[in-house]
Amino acid sequence: MRPADVENWIRGIIISPNADHPDVTSQRAETPAGGDRGALFKRRRRLASPLTPPKSARSMSQNAADGMTPATKRRRMIAEVATISDSSEDELGLCGAGGARAAVENGTGTDAALAFDADATPRAPRRSAKASPVKYRHLPQAGAASPTISGASSTSSTSNRSMSTTSSPRKRMRALEVAFEPVEVRPLVPDMPQDMPQALAEFCSQLFDISQGVGVLGDSTQDSFMEHSNPAMKRVASVPRHFSAARDHLGPTPSIDCVLSILISAQECQKYPEISWNLEVHAPVLSLALRPPGSPPFSQPCGFVACHPARIIKEYLNGSVPDKMIDFCLYLDPEALKDRAAVREIELTRQSLAGYMINHTDYDPLRKRPLTLSIETKKPGEGLENATLQVGAWHAAQWRFLDAMADRLGEDSTSLSFLPAIIIQGHDWNFAATTREGNKTVLWLKQTIGSTNSVLGIYQIVTALQSFRRWTQKTYWPWFRATVLGLPSSP
Fold it and tell me: Is the pLDDT of residue 411 over 60?
């Protein structure tokens, strides 16, 4: 292309202004005095340079079609942002919007409007020295009312009862540690009984013997082990400490075939989900221990029930709680005990209780059956932190309920030494417990009971469960009768 052709092209642009650039349409080509064609060329080049469209979502031609100049567009954009900032400036982080808005409203011009950069990265607002202190929503505020039996007031209302349930179990456990009624985790070490209440230490000692296989088989079963075709049964029978005459006082010793059936199911469920373990392994073990052969379910004074749907009644909540609580529990049934006075008193007491429940949970099967032992289950090797959180929160709510019930009668709930729990991880069953120190719940973790990975381990678990049943009937029920129901400790 010849230089003359380029010059003619530039002259044509100046004579016919580009409609896409309103600022250029007002320009007129004028030849400088003296006919300096070089100066004219430089000026034309200067005018031509902005003709390349800018890289933006809205072109200048669109602005022109709307009757908006760039300055007008900026003012409109700032005004819109300023309107939003009136109500949510802190949330959006538009720290500079206030100054830009004032400049626009005061009509100080485009330069003032440019004080706000719409493309700038939003920044968090600076906190002034006089800013209000942060309120931790998961902690009760000073002066909050104590939980009442009627449930009219609670320190754990829906608006401030919990942090996000999507937080990690560790963070939520930390929240419970500093809650108004905290939960503290301590190690459960049978060899250091001086660190725990005496009654809990004595119970741990019994469970330790069971975990070592001491007295987990009745004397009457020794011959059946010796005569069994499975060589493993003969090895069990060859250890004298496994057998005891006192074992039969806890309940019947299950047959070898029943235990082998559970062992096979446990091996099959090794990589199955938690619900399969609950249905195929854990529930049959509980039945083997607590439902004598030939007796109908739910007819025993101390029974068990699956309670996966159970939730804490809001009046007894304490800070952050998990979505899921426990999987099974042991309960005491006054009707099966034929304790008419207790049945009548429970019915009367429920009329003034939150949810009309004699427990801290709204689970209907437990509405008139006091809950004693809580059981949480997990897959093999998984979920100990979650289980710790669930048992800690669950027991803290149970203590809150018992505190309120005891206060009603002028009694002291801490006269009950501990509340028991079991945490199951696949094959492994572990004992846990909570005690009360003032308004603090102390969660003690954990002591091995037995494993469904062996015949002897299953017998250990069955023996331990029958020990919990005896504790429920001999210790918990007399205490509950006197401290919660206001009746004599024995019928």
Answer: yes
